[in-house]
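User: quick one, sequence for these tokens?
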């Protein structure tokens, strides 16, 4: 049977979404895809997700193994379509490999597409708040924590204190209850810290970030919030987004 051609005159539009974010999530990540979808202000923002194989436990050496696989993960994000930005959703992976290595691998297959990461987005957010000192909360073990603190202090504010859950299994990080993250954030804060940074895209800090800010009375930046914020700005979305902390609630300058 031959199909009857549609007689209605039509033309193609740009497809779903004026602002298109490509997201590379870790294979073991339970949280970041949910967070990005929840934080979307409207269907004008679309998120296309790919995943990259990561190796447990979460150590600096294991994190580095993702590097060669990022180009393949990026190539699967609407390969023949427009993407405004690609977000690699691993804070510790970026600190282990370095931003340039991450971006270079992704841009092997997505040439000229801007690349954002949680740590570089987090540092931009802390700079926006004028933070010269920061307290840090992480779920990581010691070698990953050391790499993170070195990266922060080499590229941004001085770290006044580090508090950690000391978890090596990436799957377990997603099991930290949001209320526990809230209590740990209060514990991690220091009077001499201008802001608090909560690292790791695998934990549910977005759920309680507004509550933490209200309790501490200072800016709080967490990985998924900062990554989404910079992804929006690079994609060209400039309006405020409510419900997920002060950072997203500010319109672009």
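Assistant:
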């Amino acid at each position: 049977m031959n199909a009857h051609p549609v007689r209605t005159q039509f033309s193609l539009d740009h497809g779903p979404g004026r602002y298109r974010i490509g997201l590379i999530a870790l294979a073991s990540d339970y949280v970041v895809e949910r967070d990005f979808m929840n934080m979307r202000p409207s269907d004008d923002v679309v998120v296309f997700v790919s995943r990259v194989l990561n190796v447990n436990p979460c150590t600096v050496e294991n994190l580095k193994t993702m590097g060669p696989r990022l180009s393949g993960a990026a190539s699967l994000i609407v390969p023949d379509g427009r993407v405004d930005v690609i977000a690699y959703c691993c804070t510790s992976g970026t600190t282990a490999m370095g931003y340039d290595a991450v971006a270079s691998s992704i841009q092997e297959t997505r040439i000229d597409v801007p690349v954002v990461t949680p740590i570089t987005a987090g540092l931009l957010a802390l700079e926006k708040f004028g933070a010269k000192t920061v307290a840090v909360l992480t779920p990581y073990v010691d070698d990953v924590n050391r790499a993170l603190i070195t990266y922060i202090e080499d590229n941004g504010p001085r770290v006044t204190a580090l508090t950690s859950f000391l978890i090596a299994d990436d799957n377990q990080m997603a099991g930290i209850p949001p209320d526990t993250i809230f209590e740990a954030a209060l514990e991690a804060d220091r009077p001499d810290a201008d802001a608090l940074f909560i690292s790791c895209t695998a934990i549910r800090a977005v759920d309680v970030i507004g509550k933490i800010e209200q309790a501490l009375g200072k800016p709080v930046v967490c990985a998924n919030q900062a990554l989404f914020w910079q992804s929006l700005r690079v994609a060209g979305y400039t309006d405020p987004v409510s419900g997920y902390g002060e950072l997203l609630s500010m319109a672009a300058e």
